[in-house]
Design a protein that fits this description.
Elements lengths: L1 H24 L1 H28 L9 H10 L1 H15 L1
Length: 90
């Protein structure tokens, strides 16, 4: 039983080392994802405020799903979220 634990420990350490190397090598891609996530979240927030001011009942909740969608797809993802919400109201 101890041999499996030792093997799992070695695999885990190797995985962590590979993850650190990937982050170090592709830091600009990770930073780009963070920027898109923040920009998408801010865009959703302000579009929600704009919709409420104009009297529309289209509000997208800020949750991990919407933040992940705006992070991966960017601004088109935000538009897609609002489009799906508007389509659901029809």
């Amino acid at each position: 039983m101890e041999t499996y634990q030792g093997a799992l420990l070695i695999v885990g350490v190797c995985g962590i080392v590979l993850l650190i190397l990937a982050v170090k090598r592709h830091s600009h891609l990770i930073l780009n994802l963070v920027y898109r996530g923040v920009a998408g979240t801010i865009t959703i927030f302000f579009l929600n405020q704009l919709m409420q001011l104009t009297g529309f009942s289209v509000v997208i909740g800020l949750n991990p799903g919407t933040v992940l969608t705006s992070t991966i797809l960017g601004f088109p993802g935000v538009i897609l979220l609002f489009g799906i919400k508007i389509y659901g109201l029809l």
